[in-house]
Every structure is written in C-alpha cells, then in structure tokens.
C-alpha cells in the first residue's frame, strides 16, 4: 500500500509533557504515545509552561527534549485563577462529572477562560504551517479551534475530550452552554472517550441545535463535522515491561514482605471527588463489618497524591477522607493490623507497577470518569499465572471495554462489599479467564491504537474535502 507522507502534528494541551527519556520510568503513556508521533512528524507540543508572569508577553519558550519540540507560554496569575482554577476546574470539571452541586458559575471565570484561549490562539497561529494537523486536547481548550478559525487557520483541526460529556439536560445548567458547544463545530473531528459520551453529545446537538446525526457525521446548519468515540489506552507493552523491571520486582518483593501473607487491595487515584474515594472506603468498611473473620487477613492500600489543592472542593474531599480513613482505622485496627493504609503521595511508575502486581484486587470506583487508566494499568501489571481481580465502577469509561471486570455501582456499599468478597474467593481459573479477556482489550486498544484512530479520522476529513 502506498504510504501517505505524514503531516506535521501540532498537539495542544493545557500542560505539555515532554519526554523524559526514562523509557519505562516515570513517563505517562500519553506522553510516550504523543511524543513518538511528534518525533516522527517533527511536530510541536504547545501549551502553558505552568509558570506565571506579572504581565502576559506572548513569548514562546521552545525546547527540544529527546527529539520532541515543546513550545510553551507563561500566563498571568489572574489567568491561573480564572481560567485554570476557575472555569476549567471549578465550572467545567464538576459539571462534566455530573456534579452540578459543586459547579460554580462566575462570569469572571468564563471571561478568563475566553481570554486565555484567545492568548493560545494568538501565540499558536504563527507556528501553524499549511499542511499541519492540529490536535487540541481537553476541556481547558474547547474554544481554541474556533478562535484559530477566526484568525484564518484552515488546517484540519481535531479535538479530543478526556473527561465525560454530560447528559444534555445537565449541560443546560451552564450559562452560555450553547456558545460553548457551538465552538466544537469549528473542528473537523471531535473525539470522545465512550459511546455514552458521544450519545450525550448527539442528544444535545439534536435537541438544542436542531442538528442531524448520520453515523459519524454531525450536521448543524451548513456545517458537518465528524464525531467519534475513541477510547484512550495505555502504553500496554511498555507497562508490562515496567511491571517486570528490577524496580518493580523490588517493590513487589517489599510489598509482599510488608503484607505478611495478607491479601492487598489497591487503589491509586489523584485525590479528586470524581474518583469515588469516600464511597470506596465506605464499601470497604461494609466489607469489614460483615466479614469479621477477615480482619487481619486483608487490607486496603490507597495511594492518593493530592491535586488542585487551591480549589476548595479539593480541600474538603481531602479532609473528609482524612476523617473517614481515621474513623475506619480507629474502629477496626488491631495492634498488629491496620485496615487502610492511606498514602497522600505519588510513586515512580515502575514501582507502582510492582505494587499493582502484588495486589489481589484493583479497586477502581469513580462516580464518573472519562476513561480511567489505572484500571488498565492494573490489568497490564498482573502475573498471567496468578492474576488479581479488577473491581471497576460501571461509571468509568473503561467499563465499556473491560466488561469482564467485576462491574459495580460505586454508590452502593453493598455492591462494593459483595464484589470484594467475590474477588477474594474467586477460583484461579475464573480469575485467569476474566483477566485474559481484559488484557486482550488493553493490549489491542492501546495508546498507539487510540492515537492512530484519531489522527486517521482527522486526515480522512481532509481527503474527503479534497475529493
Ligand atoms: C484524565 C481523565 C482519563 C496516579 N498516581 C500516581 C500515578 N498516577 C497516574 C496513574 C494514571 C494517571 O496518573 C491517572 O489517570 P486516570 O485516567 O486514572 O485519571 P485522570 O488523571 O483523572 O485523567 C481520565 C485520562 O485523563 C486520560 O484520558 O482516563 O478519565 O479524568 O496513569 O498511573 N503515577 C505515578 N505515581 C503515582 O503515585 N507514577
């Protein structure tokens, strides 16, 4: 088959994740997959530097690390408050995770969000060359495509949403929801994590924009775009390698020593209210209450590095988890056993892989999650001869693919309790069969599959336009 020359790729996301060159070390799967594509196409990863300056200058800092060019800009402290901590993380994040009760609708946030998106458009525009593919990521940047179009950019531009898309009626609570959604029509391809998210988007388009859906095509007025479900995967092969690295083996060995023959349940999440950590602790508490014979035989290791600490709802979830883990430990602990090891810090990736492998159960209970990569990493890290069991919330995007996990409703402590009991008693053959089915999916729909699916769709739109 004739190889098409690869278009140069420009990736835009709030933060850039330049390759660190550590291979199976600390680099996330997303960075690995996108870096490979950027390297092959001599592309650019554009985003915010994470730094603030008193006055915005628009100066771009170019760097080159391990063959990948990154281009970053500094923002003002007010931008950080209104755009990042404000509209992105206090308005859109809660609303898109179905938490309208936590969403704050400040007009200043919306203005800051618009201003920063305009800043991104103004600084990015001169970097874009004729045949570049532009791929914009996530809820921080919904309007960026439309702002680039206003500046005359005619390139193929795609957008991928990493978080859920809310049901249509819920989205109506966002002031200017229509304006926000209409900015998506500026893209050639819009990608969602799940069919569920895509259907919610379709509902909005039909009901609010009087649009029409025909397969992957979404038409509103005279504008037609492609909208697809394109579930993100992990760098599975690399994660399997990481789980067999010497750091992972050592972590596994140390963990096994420290578990002292007890069964370990593992949870790993950014400390975020969407991850269902309270519900997880309550479900585990139910298990302890109704299985007194298991005290001292099992424990939960919850790794939860704090995130977004400037936002009040994150401070609140942190205090309630401190209180809840303390209460459960106080009620059930013995001099030689603590039921929950609750750790507020992060660990290197290969060490984490070794810890996953030592756990009998991966407990993943988000109330809503775009995908949830931890579920896939837990599967990839297992020993095929003696795999652990994944307990997975049906509200994680990953549940559409990992249908052989034990799927639970995280709102029900009973469900979590029963699934823990079922997993701990599960015969080896059933564990292997469930794991194999999940692993087949994790391996085949990995992060490179995801990237190709999206960029192929984006290149395809151009071919259609030219035909
Ligand atoms: C968003 C969406 C979607 C966590 N603790 C440590 C650590 N992690 C790593 C995990 C995993 C990543 O962070 C978390 O990814 P998730 O997918 O679970 O969740 P979000 O951060 O909310 O990501 C989500 C994702 O975007 C991708 O589209 O799946 O739905 O919300 O890779 O391993 N990594 C290390 N140490 C830690 O302590 N090294």
The protein's oligomeric status is: single chain
Return the domain count.
2
Q: How many helices in DSSP terms?
A: 16
Distance between the termini: 19 Å
Strand content: 15-25%
CATH hierarchy, class of the largest domain: Alpha Beta
Mean of all residue-level pLDDT scores:
93
Poorly predicted segments: 463-467
Query: What's the architecture of the largest domain, going by CATH?
Result: 3-Layer(aba) Sandwich
Overall strand count: 16
Describe the main β-sheet briefly: 10 strands, mixed
InterPro entries: Glyco_trans_20
Organism: Sphingomonas montanisoli
Family: Belongs to the glycosyltransferase 20 family.
Protein name: Trehalose-6-phosphate synthase
Short structural description:
This protein is of the alpha/beta class. The chain has helices spanning 29-41, 77-96, 107-124, 144-150, 168-171, 177-182, 195-209, 236-243, 246-259, 277-290, 312-332, 349-357, 373-380, 413-424, 428-444, 447-466, and strands at residues 9-15, 44-52, 61-65, 68-75, 133-137, 156-160, 189-192, 212-214, 217-220, 223-229, 263-268, 298-303, 340-343, 361-364, 389-393, 406-408. The chain folds into 2 domains: 9-230, 3-Layer(aba) Sandwich (Rossmann fold), CATH 3.40.50; 236-444, Rossmann fold (3-Layer(aba) Sandwich), CATH 3.40.50.
């Amino acid at each position: 088959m004739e190889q098409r020359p690869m278009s140069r790729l420009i990736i835009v996301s709030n933060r850039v994740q330049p390759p660190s060159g550590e291979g199976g070390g600390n680099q996330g799967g997303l960075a690995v997959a996108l870096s490979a594509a950027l390297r092959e196409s001599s592309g650019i990863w554009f985003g915010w530097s994470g730094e603030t300056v008193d006055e915005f200058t628009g100066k771009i800092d170019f760097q080159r690390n391990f063959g990948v060019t990154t281009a970053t800009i500094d923002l003002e402290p007010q931008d950080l408050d209104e755009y990042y901590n404000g509209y992105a993380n206090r308005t859109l994040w809660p609303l898109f995770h179905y938490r309208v009760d936590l969403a704050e609708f400040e007009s200043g946030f919306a203005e800051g969000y618009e201003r920063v998106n305009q800043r991104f458009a103004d600084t990015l525009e001169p970097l874009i060359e004729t045949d570049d593919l532009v791929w914009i990521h996530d809820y921080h940047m919904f309007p960026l495509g439309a702002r680039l179009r206003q500046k005359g950019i005619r390139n193929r531009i795609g957008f991928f949403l990493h978080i859920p898309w809310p049901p249509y009626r819920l989205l109506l609570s966002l002031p200017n929801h229509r304006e926000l959604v209409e900015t998506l029509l500026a893209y050639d391809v819009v990608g969602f994590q799940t069919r569920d998210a895509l259907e919610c988007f379709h509902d909005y388009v039909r009901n609010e924009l009087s649009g029409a859906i025909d397969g992957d095509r979404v038409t509103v007025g005279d504008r037609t775009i492609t909208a697809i479900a394109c579930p993100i995967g992990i760098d599975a092969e690399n994660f399997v390698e990481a789980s067999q690295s010497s750091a992972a083996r050592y972590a596994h060995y140390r963990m096994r020593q420290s578990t002292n023959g007890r069964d370990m349940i593992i949870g790993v999440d950014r400390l975020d209210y969407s991850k269902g950590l309270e519900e997880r602790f309550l479900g585990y508490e139910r298990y302890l209450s109704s299985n007194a014979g298991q005290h001292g035989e099992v424990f939960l290791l919850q790794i939860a590095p704090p995130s977004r600490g400037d936002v009040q709802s994150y401070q609140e979830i942190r205090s309630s988890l401190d209180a809840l883990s303390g209460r459960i430990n106080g009620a059930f602990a013995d001099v030689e056993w603590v039921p929950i090891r609750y750790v507020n810090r992060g660990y290197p990736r290969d060490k984490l892989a070794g810890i996953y492998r030592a756990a009998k159960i991966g407990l993943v209970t988000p109330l809503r999650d775009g995908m949830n990569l931890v579920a896939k990493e837990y599967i990839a890290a297992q020993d095929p001869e003696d795999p652990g069991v994944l307990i997975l919330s049906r509200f994680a995007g990953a549940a559409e693919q990992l249908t052989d996990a034990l799927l639970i409703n995280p709102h029900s402590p009973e469900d979590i309790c029963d699934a823990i009991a079922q997993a701990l008693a599960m015969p080896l053959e059933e564990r292997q069969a469930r794991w194999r089915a999940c692993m087949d999916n994790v391996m085949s729909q990995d992060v490179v599959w995801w990237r190709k699916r999206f960029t192929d769709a984006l290149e395809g739109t151009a071919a259609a336009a030219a035909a």
